C-alpha cells in the first residue's frame, strides 16, 4: 500500500508536486499518467526516499521508505534502468544487491528465470540492450519479493516484444496481490496495463478513478447521416447540444442520446440513414483532462510516439 498525503516538492520557485493525496490499493495496477514534467518521477522518487518532500508525506505500508528495515523486501522500484555498474555481469549485479539484504543466490537465479534474462545474465551490463537493462532492473526490483512495485516509464524505448513483456509482468504481479504503480505519459499504454488511473497535470491530481469510470464519464457523441442535413440541424439545435458537420450528409451530435435524436427526426419527418453512438476513447478523455495542464508541447510528441 502506498499512501500520499498533501505531498509537495518544490525546487526553488518551481513546484514539481503540489499537495497531492492518494492511496494505492494492492492487487491492482495503478497507472500514473501525465504529460512530461507533470511530476510523476518526482512523486515516485519521494516514495522510495530518493527525494525529500518539501511538505506532506508518502508512506509504504504506513511508514516512510527510509524507516523500513529491509527496503528491498518492502518495495521494488525501477526508476532509472541505467543505474548499474557497467563492468559487472547481470548476475553479479543481482548477487551484490541480494547480499546487502541477506537474500540467497537461489533467489537471484529465480529472478533471472522470472524475467527471462537467461544467457544475458552471464554478460557484462555495458553490452545490454535497453530491453535487457529493463529486465535486469525488474529482476533487481523483484529480488526481495516485495509487496509493492514502482516502475517509472518502464516501456520507454522498448521494442513491441519488450513492451508486451513489461505489460504482462505488471499484470501478473498485481494478480499475485501486489501493489503495482506504473508511470507513463501515454494513455494508450496505460489503457492496456492499468486497472486504475491517477492523472497528474502540473503537479496536481486531475483524475483518480478506475479506467472503466473514466471511459463512461465521457460525453457521448452520435454520428447521424441524412440527406436532409439542414432540417436535422434545425431540429436538433437546442441548448446543451452541439453539432459538427462532418460532410454534406453527416452530423456529429454531442449532448443528445441516439433515442432522442431518432424521435426528433421522426417528429419532423426526417429520414435518417445512420444513427451511431461513438464510444469516447480514453485518449479523448486524457486529452480533455490534460489539455490545460501540458507544461510544454513538442510537435505532438507528448502523445502517440512510435514504438
Ligand atoms: N532536480 C530538479 N531540480 C529542478 N527541477 C526539477 C528537478 N527534478 C524535476 N524538476 C522539475 O519538476 C517538474 C516535474 O518533473 P518530473 O520529472 O517529476 O515530471 P514527470 O512527470 O516525471 O515528467 P517526465 O515524463 O518528463 O519524466 C518538471 O518541471 C521538472 O523540470
Task: Describe what you observe in this structure.
With 307 residues, the protein is α/β, with parallel strands linked by helices. The protein folds into two domains: 2-216, 3-Layer(aba) Sandwich (Rossmann fold); 221-279, 2-Layer Sandwich (Alpha-Beta Plaits), CATH 3.30.70. 33% of the residues lie in helices and 27% in strands. It is built from eleven helices and 13 strands. The protein has helices at 40-47, 71-74, 90-100, 105-114, 130-142, 160-175, 187-193, 211-216, 229-236, 258-267, 282-290; strands at residues 2-11, 14-24, 28-33, 55-60, 75-78, 148-151, 179-184, 196-201, 204-210, 221-226, 242-247, 250-254, 272-278. A six-stranded mixed β-sheet has the order 5-6-7-3-8-9, with helices on both faces. A hairpin with a 2-residue loop joins strand 8 (196-201) and strand 9 (204-210). The longest helix has 16 residues, at 160-175. The radius of gyration is 24 Å and the shape is elongated. The two termini are 32 Å apart. The protein binds adenosine-5'-triphosphate (ATP). Adenosine-5'-triphosphate (ATP) binds next to strand 2 and helix 1.
Amino acid at each position: 500500500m502506498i499512501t500520499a498525503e498533501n505531498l509537495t516538492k518544490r525546487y526553488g520557485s518551481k513546484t514539481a508536486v503540489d499537495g497531492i493525496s492518494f492511496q494505492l490499493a494492492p492487487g491492482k495496477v495503478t497507472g500514473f499518467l501525465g504529460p512530461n514534467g507533470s511530476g510523476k518521477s518526482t512523486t515516485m522518487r519521494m516514495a522510495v526516499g530518493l527525494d525529500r518532500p518539501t511538505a506532506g508525506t508518502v508512506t509504504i505500508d504506513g511508514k516512510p521508505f527510509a524507516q523500513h528495515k529491509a527496503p528491498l523486501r518492502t518495495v521494488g522500484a525501477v526508476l532509472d534502468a541505467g543505474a548499474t555498474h557497467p563492468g559487472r555481469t547481470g548476475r553479479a549485479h543481482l548477487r551484490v544487491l541480494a547480499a546487502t539484504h541477506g537474500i540467497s543466490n537461489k533467489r537471484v537465479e529465480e529472478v533471472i528465470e522470472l524475467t527471462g534474462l537467461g544467457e544475458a545474465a552471464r554478460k557484462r551490463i555495458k553490452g545490454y540492450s535497453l530491453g535487457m537493462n529493463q529486465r535486469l532492473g525488474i529482476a533487481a526490483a523483484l529480488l526481495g519479493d516485495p509487496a509493492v512495485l514502482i516502475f517509472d516509464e518502464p516501456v520507454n524505448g522498448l521494442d513491441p516484444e519488450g513492451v508486451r513483456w513489461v505489460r504482462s509482468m505488471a499484470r501478473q504481479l498485481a494478480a499475485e496481490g501486489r501493489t503495482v504503480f506504473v508511470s507513463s505519459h501515454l494513455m494508450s499504454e496505460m489503457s492496456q496495463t492499468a486497472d486504475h488511473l491517477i492523472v497528474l497535470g502540473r503537479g496536481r491530481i486531475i483524475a483518480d478513478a478506475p479506467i472503466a469510470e473514466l471511459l463512461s464519464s465521457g460525453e457521448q457523441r452520435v454520428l447521424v447521416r441524412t440527406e436532409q442535413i439542414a432540417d436535422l440541424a434545425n431540429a436538433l439545435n437546442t441548448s446543451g447540444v452541439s453539432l459538427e458537420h462532418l460532410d454534406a450528409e453527416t452530423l456529429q451530435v454531442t449532448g443528445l442520446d441516439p433515442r432522442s435524436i431518432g424521435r426528433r427526426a421522426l417528429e419532423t419527418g426526417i429520414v435518417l440513414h445512420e444513427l451511431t453512438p461513438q464510444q469516447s476513447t480514453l485518449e479523448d478523455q486524457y486529452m480533455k483532462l490534460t489539455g490545460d495542464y501540458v507544461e510544454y508541447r513538442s510537435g505532438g510528441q507528448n502523445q502517440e510516439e512510435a514504438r
